[in-house]
Design goal:
Elements (H helix, E strand, L loop, with lengths): L20 H17 L9 H10 L9 H11 L6 H35 L4 H19 L2 H7 L5 H21 L7 H33 L6 H15 L4 H7 L12 H8 L13 H18 L2 H17 L1 H20 L11 H21 L1 H26 L6 H11 L6 E4 L2 H12 L8 E4 L6 H11 L1 H6 L1 H15 L6 H17 L7 E3 L12 E5 L2 E5 L15 H4 L7 H24 L3 H14 L4 H13 L3 H14 L4 H13 L3
Parallel strand pairs: 1-2, 1-3
Antiparallel strand pairs: 3-5, 4-5
């Protein structure tokens, strides 16, 4: 007799525990693929900073990721490959564990279903195991999980803990939903909060819904929640790492959470809270549309159809899992579309895609239960879906040849002379620099300063003096004057924002001028307004070299790594396309502009042709090319260039003005 979901199963025969070997198959296959495709060196976004935090047992950016840092430190000690590869391999291992846990969770769903339908024959049992393997590998080869499984990031460890907590709750239901919530569930959630608390909290409403649907509201009684609560508290103790690490004054001590207020600021990620619900309704709508489009190819189109079928089965047969999956999806999507995070926004819906795999597994189980032909179809789909996902996503997720971040740093520093200083606002340059400089000892003579981080007392008052003592000794009066006002701002005391900005600019300006004329001073674009005034700005590779002399001839272009942009653009990640490639194009275009002003039209044309070879749609390069063609008297070529600008940037006023100028000067 069938029972409703949520009814006690105490009087029913306990379901048979599913075997472990399907999860083992998923673990081995996915681990092999991930390790084959994971990055061999530092990558973009937060990779460089996180690797440095792990290698040095330091403190990473808020909320600090204490568990990730401690586990990552152990992986950093493995004597295989570079330290960056070791941390990428850590992501690979935990992503494979996540996929294996998906297979175990689908096995639990099958066991629950078999309890109601009766024992399965040999063919059905084999098909169910193939379905487990298929669901696990389909998720393993989904685009977002795979992309984060191959770089040094926090999300695969975090997702493994969430997946393990879901699996343990499914086991808890199989064993009798009247028992207390296992302490292991609480421990896993608490440990997850010590990796990336936001994405774990997004899954909590779904976990609670599953518990209440399986065991009733009594399952949340204090007596039955006590073991899980104790486990969660034990997991949260990982945050004790932060003040202990800060007390050691490691090279990277983000936020210096050694005091109670700094600890709270760091754990609560106070500096990022302004990004929540910061966008407009239109922006949230665009984010939702982008997410919907990406979901169509996230697993693969075939798998998404099967997910929809699985939702129907869950509605009819297992609503506890339906509430779990639905709430995790809805809460994750609601958060992701309203949080204006930077380059890793898709990571915030990883738990959403994890939950979506449960209906996929349910659909395969349904097919096995329906009849002989559908049983064969379920087994075939269990093999085909992972193959389709692997074929669709291999190229975009293969990071084994990704040298963009490393080459970006090398090219930016290639034009900076010995003992030179470079000030930048570009995190995609600074994060990999942290790793290359501190872990691989790249350019120990140079000082690279992140302008945005200079707005934080821990960075200006602690990191910079330790990392670049000579530079900070030279600007000590300006830095001290700024830090006094910065302390007022950080603690919410009355302050004059204009005076704070003036002292901030004075400190940055002193960093540039103190090196001149004996050592190089450089900036990247865009830069902070109000610094470097009165100096000559000369494009030099990927930077602008500042000089006290009048505008001078441009030196030959320093060597740049351009092959990936010119020959293999399909290998570029979205961040590499939007951030790094645009920097190369912008600086080559500025070189063209400068050479035009210096009447070196041939050199300007070479620089602009190279910029447009990298990105033919660049509005800045096409704009400068149009001006160059206009100066040379080639009106038709100039007109074509300005029209290309308006194709990509319809609101460009300069291009519109040039076109009107050409039309008014046209005869007739």
């Amino acid at each position: 007799m069938k029972t409703r979901v949520g009814d006690s199963i105490a009087n029913a025969d306990a379901p048979v525990a599913p075997p472990w070997w399907p999860a083992g198959v998923v673990l081995v296959v996915s681990s092999a693929v991930y390790l084959l495709t994971c990055a061999r060196t530092v990558t973009l976004v937060d990779s460089g900073e996180l690797i440095l935090a792990c290698a040095s047992l330091g403190v990473a950016h808020p909320p600090g990721f204490p568990l990730y840092t401690m586990v990552g430190h152990l992986f950093s000690l493995i004597p295989v490959g570079s330290v960056a590869f070791r941390l990428a391999a850590m992501s690979a291992i935990f992503a494979a564990v996540t996929a294996a846990l998906v297979a175990l969770a689908v096995g639990e769903l099958a066991s629950w279903s078999r309890r109601r339908e009766g024992p399965a024959d040999g063919r059905s049992r084999l098909a169910l195991r193939v379905a487990q393997v298929g669901a696990g590998l389909t998720f393993a080869f989904s685009s977002t999980l795979w992309s984060y499984a191959t770089v040094a990031e926090v999300y695969s460890l975090n997702l493994a803990l969430v997946a393990a907590s879901m699996w343990l709750l499914l086991r808890w239901r199989r064993g009798g939903a009247q028992a207390p919530i296992p302490w292991g569930v609480g421990l896993l959630v608490g440990l997850g909060l010590g990796v990336h608390h936001v994405t774990v909290l997004l899954a909590v409403p779904g976990l609670i819904a599953f518990v209440t649907a399986s065991g009733g509201w009594r399952a949340l009684a204090p007596r039955r929640l006590a073991p899980a609560a104790g486990g969660a508290f034990a997991g949260l103790l990982s945050y004790a790492y932060l003040p202990l690490a800060a007390s050691r004054h490691p090279v990277l001590n983000w936020g210096n959470p050694s005091s109670l207020d700094h600890f709270w600021w760091h754990v609560s990620a106070r500096q990022y809270q302004v990004n929540l619900f910061a966008g407009s309704f239109e922006q949230a709508s665009r984010n939702l549309a982008d997410l919907a489009r990406s979901a169509l190819v996230e697993l693969n189109p075939l798998a998404m159809v099967i997910v929809a079928v699985g939702l129907v089965w869950l509605w009819r047969r297992d609503r506890a899992v339906l509430w779990l999956a639905s709430l995790v999806v809805l809460v994750g999507v609601a958060y992701a579309v309203n949080y204006e995070i930077a380059e890793d926004g898709e990571a915030y819906v990883l738990t959403t895609f994890l939950a979506a795999v449960l209906p996929l597994g349910a659909a395969l189980i349904w097919m096995v239960e329906t009849g002989r032909r559908t049983t064969i179809a379920a087994a075939v789909l269990g093999l085909v879906m992972p193959a389709v996902g692997a074929a669709l996503h291999w190229r975009s997720c293969d990071r084994s040849h990704d040298l963009v971040a490393k080459h970006f740093v090398e090219d930016a520093l290639g034009g900076v002379g010995p003992q030179g200083v470079l000030l930048t606002l570009e995190w995609q340059l600074y994060a990999p620099w942290l790793y290359l400089h501190h872990v691989e000892d790249f350019r120990p003579d140079a000082a690279v300063v992140d302008i945005n981080l200079c707005r934080r007392s821990w960075y200006t008052g602690e990191y910079l003096p330790a990392a670049h003592p000579g530079l900070m000794a030279a600007v000590r009066p300006q830095a001290d004057a700024f830090l006094v006002k910065l302390d007022d701002w950080e603690h919410g005391r009355p302050h004059d924002p204009d005076e704070l900005t003036r002292r901030f600019d004075a400190m940055l300006d002193a960093m540039l001028r103190t090196t001149l004329p004996n050592r190089d001073a450089h900036l990247t674009l865009p830069t902070e307004p109000g610094i470097g005034d009165g100096l000559s700005w000369v494009p030099h590779g990927l930077t602008l070299r500042l000089s006290t002399r009048s505008p001078e001839a441009v030196e030959p272009l320093p060597p740049l790594h351009l092959d990936v942009f010119l020959k293999h653009p399909e290998r570029l990640t979205p961040v590499a396309r939007s951030k790094v490639r645009s920097t190369y194009v912008l600086m080559l275009a500025n070189r063209g502009r400068y050479l035009t002003l210096m009447s070196d039209f041939e050199g300007a044309r070479r620089a602009l042709d190279l910029a447009l070879a990298i990105d033919p749609t660049s509005s800045s390069a096409n704009m400068i090319l149009g001006d160059l063609e206009l100066m040379a008297g080639r009106r038709d070529a100039a007109l074509a260039a300005y029209l290309k600008v308006l194709q990509t940037d319809p609101g460009n006023r300069d291009a519109t003005a040039r076109l009107k100028q050409l039309e008014s000067a046209s005869p007739g």
